[in-house]
């Protein structure tokens, strides 16, 4: 069994996919081809933001948006302690200081109370200027944007939605990647909407920000590529990846998102009474980047993973280490305690999930359930 069955997905999409890729090779429009523009227009319309600027990957997308907001040394950027490294890495990369805040034990997402507490401590200390909050839509579920936006705006800060895992999710009728002042996503192959390599995108409603982002993505270009008005870098989505994404985005909308939700509901039905399953609050819709359960402790998790591996069922631990315990962040001050994150890092485990699993392939649910009961 595959953890995320990209081979099966390709077999299903093969005819359209091969045609789309060969078209790019035939036209030789490898950089900035018409497919890039078409994809940007479709993604912006889907999420409900004015601009979509594609780029090299989800990490560049976050960094570029922080650059657009002029974030740098002396600025505090609030990031959940329980997330993929890149969410905090970009903050340090831009010379600013990440402040890690705890998450909610049910949704795994940024805890608004921990956020507010951290902001107050940073403000009271007076060394750093609170500038940006980066909520992450972890495992496909949007964070609590009504509360987070209210807190951030009340403290004069902007909100950058890290939607790398959240594309396709819904929050109170609004689409993920439209829930902050700006948003980013990633097309890394294993994300809800993935390409066949690296790729990313930024979403904003501001014409000025969009123009700046398009400039820094191509060496700080001015009126044309060889007129360079600022220091930028090179971060673009290849035409071939855009062509692949156009095929995948169609499948994503037509059936994948619904299918992955169905598989998640089979898991929850079967496992809900024996283990802590993911919580999708009223008014939320997840795009299920991961299906993550919580066991009692680290030993139980190790034993559970060992038993499943023996039976050919892969599992993964996202994430084994809190951000504040990462060696790369050694020396950073920890402003608030993050006991939930510390516990989750020892107890969470993600199960195989994608929109191509059938109920039959989910007979493994029975094995998963009995393994939980045995450990
Ligand atoms: C994957 C991921 C990123 C980075 O995206 P890349 O395309 O791999 O650079 C950022 N944030 C989160 C939460 C992610 O899961």
UniProtKB/TrEMBL annotation:
Keywords per UniProt: Aminotransferase, Pyridoxal phosphate, Transferase
Residues modified to N6-(pyridoxal phosphate)lysine: 191
GO function terms (MF aspect): pyridoxal phosphate binding; transaminase activity
One GO BP annotation of this record: polysaccharide biosynthetic process
Catalytic residues in the record: 191
InterPro entries the UniProt entry points to: DegT/StrS_aminotransferase, PyrdxlP-dep_Trfase, PyrdxlP-dep_Trfase_major, PyrdxlP-dep_Trfase_small
Pfam family, any one: DegT_DnrJ_EryC1
SUPFAM superfamilies per the UniProt record, alphabetical: PLP-dependent transferases (SSF53383)
UniProt record similarity statement: Belongs to the DegT/DnrJ/EryC1 family.
Protein name stated in the entry: DegT/DnrJ/EryC1/StrS family aminotransferase
